[in-house]
From TrEMBL, chain A:
GO terms under cellular component: mitochondrion
SUPFAM superfamilies named among the record's database cross-references: dsRNA-binding domain-like (SSF54768), RNase III domain-like (SSF69065)
Region annotation Disordered: where it falls in the sequence: 66-112, 276-295
GO molecular function term, any single one: ribonuclease III activity
Pfam families in alphabetical order: DSRM_MRPL44
Protein name: Large ribosomal subunit protein mL44
Annotated organism of origin: Lineolata rhizophorae
Residue stretches making up the RNase III domain: 122-210
UniProt-listed GO biological process terms: RNA processing
TrEMBL record, chain B:
Domain Ribosomal protein/NADH dehydrogenase per the UniProt entry, residue ranges: 32-105
Any single GO BP term: mitochondrial translation
UniProt keyword list: Mitochondrion, Ribonucleoprotein, Ribosomal protein
Molecular functions per Gene Ontology: structural constituent of ribosome
Protein name from the UniProt record: Large ribosomal subunit protein mL43
Length: 451, 137
């Protein structure tokens, strides 16, 4: 019944049969990723032997360059405790396979250094950050290993992050302090937090296109940030190891002077969250076994991102030197936009202004009405200026006389605190061999108004 | 407390200082057999290496997708992605699509009614009726 109106259409033709046969017998292969890594040409710089960034990958280069580089075996990292991937110097004696499967590294806590060169993700990150060729991808891979994933200091980024954190804090502090010498301490902490705080470094990690691995392990892609994350719902408010004398009194007030002495560069408590630090087992007085070094503490994504960005800066300093690091910090951190006047919060600006004028021997501030409209209407507007003698210190507009006067006082105080010298010489710009730059001392302010 | 501080974070201005290419990965999917992938297969053989070499900041993944149309998928640092179907396209057309993915920011397309955007305060300031010469009748 193969009629056009019957609804049954059977196509019998030679080409249809052939198409069908070919379609059925198409060679099916396993779906696999083909990876193109062109980006690695010219990145063959090796750090000096004994350098703390030397990861022990010198023998590999020595093999490829017919023995021109010979690293003494005593300077290699102690790989006896732990196999480092397929190192040619391992005692097994077999030649390294050309493409080891990632499952071979599943027993390691973090990816081994010698897979770093095969990762297109890592190479793309290297190129995306415009890192110089002297910055090896192996070190970049080490920067991506948090101490919570791999407790061994030879393979995690803790040492690099310590150096990079100090460099970032110093350069941001001198940048802010020299440009705004009158900033109060609280605002200085807030500015430091705004430039290199954990929140902004975490965002920087995201903007650099770095993703986190789900869980640490040797088989993960070397281009992913590896960290052991905290369980959701963990209480992170109480901290231990802060260095403060009465740290168990967690609700005590912390004043500014004590923050300068005890706390970190943002005025926050040092130390770790109390719920994450494993308390030593009771009665554990049996010597070295109670040392909390080998037990990895989980971290938040923000902490892992912070240590990654800091480690990149630290590694930059070690491999590429001071000038490159300064440029890197300027390009990625200091070039971001920050409105300093939005950092202030005054509780009693008029009183502060009176104290300031008293301290600086100005005439006492007087508020005068400059202009007004619609005093008896629904929306009056008053423009009030604050004068000291004949000088107008600030001006503000508001819906009531009181509001306008307060706004004027805030404007006057911000005008004082946000003074910025025209010419600034930051101390780090005259360091080193740059002789043609002359040190011009910066303005130093007596400090904020104490009420 | 004479003055306290409000915590905020700095705002990224990509290109002021460092420039980060927003496209971080392009996936190329093709089929070994279908005719719609003919141009894509030719592109992968002849043009992709040059494209990858010219754009080292982009991770390039090539994988077969049997019996499906060939597609390009760009992944961006803001977490979004953009797919383009390149069926029946010539290699010259595909390279145009690759450049489109490379140059995109990853943000969804939207119509810009105001061509200039700035986070800086206006230099001229906001006009105020209470300042300057007052109009008198």
């Amino acid at each position: 019944m193969n009629l056009p109106g019957s609804g049954i259409l059977v196509r019998v033709s030679r080409s249809a049969e052939m198409d069908h046969v070919i379609a059925e017998t198409a060679t099916m292969r396993l779906v696999k990723m083909a990876v193109l890594a062109f980006q690695l040409a010219g990145c063959e710089y090796q750090p000096p032997v004994g350098d703390q960034t030397c990861l022990g990958y010198l023998p590999r280069v020595a093999d490829s360059s017919q023995g021109t580089l010979h690293a003494p075996s005593s300077l290699q990292p102690q790989s006896s405790q732990r196999p480092i991937g397929f190192s040619p110097s391992s005692s097994s004696g077999r030649p390294p396979p050309s493409s080891p499967s990632p499952d071979d590294f599943a027993h390691l806590p973090s990816p081994p250094y010698n897979v770093a060169r095969d990762s297109p993700r890592l190479a793309a990150l290297h190129a995306r950050l415009s890192l110089p060729t002297r910055f090896p991808v192996e070190t970049l891979q080490r920067c991506l290993v948090d101490a919570s994933a791999d407790p061994s200091p030879d393979f995690n980024n803790a040492s690099l992050a310590l150096l990079g954190g100090d460099l970032l804090a110093y350069h941001v502090a001198e940048h802010v302090l020299c440009r705004y010498p009158r900033l109060p301490m609280a605002v200085l902490f807030a500015a430091q937090y705004a430039y290199v705080g954990p929140a902004v470094l975490s965002q920087l990690r995201q903007e650099w296109g770095v993703e986190l691995a789900a869980a640490p392990g040797g088989e993960v892609d070397p281009g992913l940030l590896v960290a052991l994350r905290v369980e959701p719902g963990t209480d992170l408010s109480r901290r231990v190891g802060t260095g403060r004398p009465n740290e168990e009194k967690h609700n005590w007030r912390r004043g500014m002077p004590s923050r300068i002495v005890y706390d970190d560069e943002f005025g926050d408590l040092k130390g770790r969250a109390a719920s994450l630090v494993k308390s030593p087992p009771p009665g554990g007085s049996d010597g070295a076994s109670t040392l909390p070094v080998s037990e990895p503490t989980p971290v938040t994504v923000e902490e892992a991102s912070t240590s990654f960005v800091r480690a990149v800066v630290g590694a930059m300093y070690l491999h590429c030197g001071r000038i490159s690091t300064l440029r890197f910090i300027y390009n990625h951190v200091l070039s971001r936009a920050l409105d300093f006047s939005s950092l202030f919060s005054f509780t009693s600006p008029r009183r502060d202004l009176v104290r300031l004028c008293d301290r600086e021997d100005f005439d006492p501030p007087v508020a005068r009405l400059i202009s007004e409209t619609g005093r008896h209407s629904r929306h009056p507007v008053f423009v009030v200026g604050i004068y000291s003698g004949r000088d107008k210190l600030g001006e503000g507009a508001g819906g009531s006389l009181n509001e306008a006067r307060t706004r004027a006082a805030v404007a006057a105080l911000k005008g004082w605190y946000l003074y910025s010298p025209m010419e600034v010489t930051v101390p780090s710009s005259v360091e080193g061999s740059d002789k043609d730059k002359k040190w011009i001392p910066n303005y130093v302010d007596p400090g904020e108004v104490i009420v | 407390m004479p003055v306290s501080a409000i915590r905020t974070i700095t705002k990224n201005q990509n290109g002021v200082g460092a420039f980060i290419l927003q496209c971080k990965r392009i996936d190329f999917h093709y089929c070994d057999w279908e005719g719609s992938s003919k141009g894509m297969r030719s592109f992968l053989r002849s043009r992709l290496a040059d494209f990858a070499r010219a754009n080292p900041a982009i991770e390039i993944n090539v994988s077969p997708r049997p019996r499906k149309q060939p597609i390009l998928r760009g992944v961006y640092v803001n977490g979004r992605d953009k797919q383009i179907c390149v069926r029946n396209m010539e290699p010259t057309q595909i390279i145009k699509k690759c450049e489109l993915l490379r140059d995109a920011s990853g943000e969804p397309l939207r119509r810009d009614t105001k061509p200039v955007k700035s986070i800086n305060e206006s230099v001229r300031g906001v006009w105020s009726p209470y300042h300057g010469a007052q109009f008198k009748i």
